[in-house]
Here is the input.
Amino acid sequence: MRLDVQNLACDRGERRIFNAVSFALAPGDALVVTGRNGAGKSSLLDILAGRLEPASGTVRLSRSGDRSLPECLHYIGHRDALKAALTTEENLTFARDFLGDPALPAHAALEAVGLAHAAALPVGYLSAGQRRRIALARLLVAHRPLWLLDEPTSALDAASQDMLFGLMERHRADGGIIVATTHAPLALKDAKEIRIERAPVPSSLAGEGS
Ligand SMILES: Nc1ncnc2c1ncn2[C@@H]1O[C@H](COP(=O)(O)OP(=O)(O)OP(=O)(O)O)[C@@H](O)[C@H]1O
Here is the structure.
């Protein structure tokens, strides 16, 4: 599988957020996306995930068989997208059934993120870092070659960050591709990096606030 992104531009509301973002990723590649608050990092992931139309430019996935782009990706956003009333194991079982192409069973994914002891706990009882680990465990319950991760280390302690880096490197070693936004350094080997710069405000709008 290969991901080719050409000359993307993004508008939010009436504003141009960024221009001219291009990159190409092959199996095993990781791309780290940096930039200031509001630069458009999450918006870029939204475009890659098919959740937001670009103002211009193209996103192409090749050598992915007959699967569409949405069927090839895991998207872990700022919000954990977990159901608070369901247990951790029920959340992962639901994700596994919903996503298709199953990989690890829910209990094995819980073990991989160090939360096997919390299998029967409703997600609403978990701490922020534990909820983040459950969200990340979704990466393991279905085979999807492209991982789009929005600030994946947020709320994670040092040990959990190490666990996450291990999962990411294993995914790359298996031929997966990762695009991750971050404000903190990510310990990924030979990762590519792109810095998103907010497009300048046109002079006709200058003075109307950012
Ligand atoms: N649905 C929306 N409608 C209008 N503007 C939006 C919408 N979502 C985001 N924006 C704006 O788009 C800009 C880019 O937001 P985005 O969340 O992509 O930035 P970011 O680089 O991920 O920021 P951060 O580092 O703070 O997470 C911001 O100015 C934000 O207010």
About this structure: The chain has one domain: 2-195. The domain at 2-195 is CATH 3.40.50.300 (Rossmann fold). Residues 12-13, 17, 35, 37-43 surround adenosine-5'-triphosphate (CB under 6 Å). The helical segments are 41-48, 88-99, 106-112, 128-141, 158-173.
